[in-house]
Amino acid sequence: MKFNFTIILLKYITLIILLIICLSCSSDDGSESVIPNSEPGSIKIDDIILDGPTITIDWSDAQDEDGDQIFYKLYINSILISETTQSISSTTLMYNKDYVGRIIGTDKKGGTTEVSFEFSSSNSKILFYRDGSGTLYSIDLYTLKPIWEARTSFIESHTISGNLIYSGVDGIQGLDILSGENIWTSMPNTSNNPSEYRNIIVDETNVFAFDSNSTLYCIDKITGGKLWERSFLDYYAPLSIDSDKIFVCSRNDDHLYAINKLTGLVDWSYRLSNNTGAAPYIKTNPLIVNNNIYFGDNIGRFYSFNKNTGSKNWSVNAGQFNSFYPSPTQYNESIITGTYSTLYSYNMHDGNTIWQYKDNVGSFRSSPYIYNNKVYIGASKNGSGELLCLNATNGSVIWRYDLENDTTTSPIVFEDVVYIGDWNKNMYAINAETGLLNWKIKSEEVIFKSPTIVIGEGKSIIYPSVSGLKN
User: What is the pTM of this model?
Assistant: First the structure.
């Protein structure tokens, strides 16, 4: 009996101890106590990698003292992009934009950590060119895919300013470089509104263009309103500009005009002398270098003038039957230009010949482009063509690339790649160092106008030498 009482007493004491333990594990309000959760550690952005429209964001894993798995949500401009347990994520974004990113890390118990950051997407790299049907093509150089196309003027040389590329069909239009959408329009000819404008060129404040009636207009770049106009007779011309003047020399006229940008009045002009019996006219686009302007005519004469006063510095004569056609460009202290048969390097100060290269089997019907101490120019060979790479210092041939047909455009070079078109509707991309083909694409019609490349919203523009904005 005594033994049984002892056992009962021990059970009672054990029960009391268990009860005390349970009470000690409870909070004052009677709820069960919870071991505190450790918040995840901080997130650090390790790298933001841009590859054209694709962006990859790489971040360090948030450390959790409890060893919990962290789940991440990536937001860009407050839009949820991805939910992942990995510390990396990729997406595609629009070019030329500023973005705000946010990553939130959460553990399974509700602990959070986050980081915010800012970044910019890739600058767009767009190749523009026009074919014989008047179609303007826009090609993404990251993906080599068409972006958009639009109808444009047949003889137009395209100009870019900011996020607009200017076209001359149905008025002067500013098309968005990324979408082709018409953002800006001006119709300065209010009398009969011809649908086509051409030879469009811009500066910081104004747009200049000819209409189909050979009237040159100056237009306010913001409002599209006409500031002045000046009429010419049967005239169109690639334009060159400096801070004060527009230089106009037509390929079917014998005058070079220096026109005041503010008034439209002629500051000075030069008329080609006629002592050969042939009608003289200017075939090259004028090149402006510092205080001088350079151009050539159709009867073998090449000139340097002071662009401010109109006084002649020097001229050279390559012979009556050597018509200067390739527009000039600058290399160091020389001017490189050419006739149909011969490419010349002239000392820019006195006109002395530094070197010349004669193509005995073809003709130069494009303008030279200078890049990394090399001259790139296309040659036509009566049904075939080639792209030539010459040493800019001495004129020696470095390499040649055979085109399927005669060249139709002047070359441009960007990021070690030469772009040029031919009569077989090809646009070529050729390695500038090796002369090997990178790729080529086919257009619907023959590619007529020389290509232009724009990086970002006018951040950098690669014009052919025939453009008045090249230098």
Answer: 0.87
